Amino acid sequence: MPREACDAKRPILVVLHQERSSAGRVGHILERKGFSLDIRRPALGDELPPTLEGHSGTIVFGGPMSANDEEEFVRREIDWLSVPLLENKPYLGICLGAQMLARNLGGKVAPHHEGMTEIGWYPLEATEAGKALLDWPAMVYHFHREGFDLPKGAELLATGDTYPNQAFRYGENAWGIQFHGELTRAMMHRWVVHGAHRFILPGAQLGKAHLEGRMIHDHPLRTWMENFLELIFLRGETA
């Protein structure tokens, strides 16, 4: 029996970075598919497990901190990513989680060379490698001021105009995406309110565009997110 089938219904380790953060739509999708969530917040003192033997895989979400910060929990978390990599366990990094994966693999994380941000809805273009895996949305939601170099040995799956590295795969089971597919409507409203001070940054969109864009672009993003999670965590389940 494939490893994915054996692990399929073990909990998924979910790493969040703020007290009020949640796994949002990603958590809802995984719970509907029979997974439970083991939620840890290293920024608040939670420990990460020394092995993922008891888990189906890991998802590391975003946060306001940088993968370049010197806080001890940031350094520990980046180093800890060697656990899913060495054990070949499914790993998904979203925004900060993707940047942490890039750092672990020797890539750089840095602001745009002209100070541009992606805060709002922006076009996405899948590479040939990405298209071979699944259909991708044409527009995705962002909330970041830094991007990452493509780590050596990684395969680029999707690209964008301002930040060219939008999604990648490393090895069999490690994945990173720069954009957000996890936001529920309530989460987006909170982000628009609490993040309004960032809408004056170069390239950022005003809050009205965030909410109007959701009405237009969210359905294909939601469909993609569900298919992507199945690709990562349910491959081979029925084999």
UniProtKB/TrEMBL annotation:
GO terms for molecular function: transferase activity. CDD domains: GATase1_1. Residues 52-184 form the Glutamine amidotransferase domain. PROSITE patterns: GATASE_TYPE_1 (PS51273). Gene3D superfamilies: 3.40.50.880. The keyword Transferase applies. This is Glutamine amidotransferase. It comes from Sinorhizobium glycinis. The lineage of its organism: Bacteria, Pseudomonadati, Pseudomonadota, Alphaproteobacteria, Hyphomicrobiales.
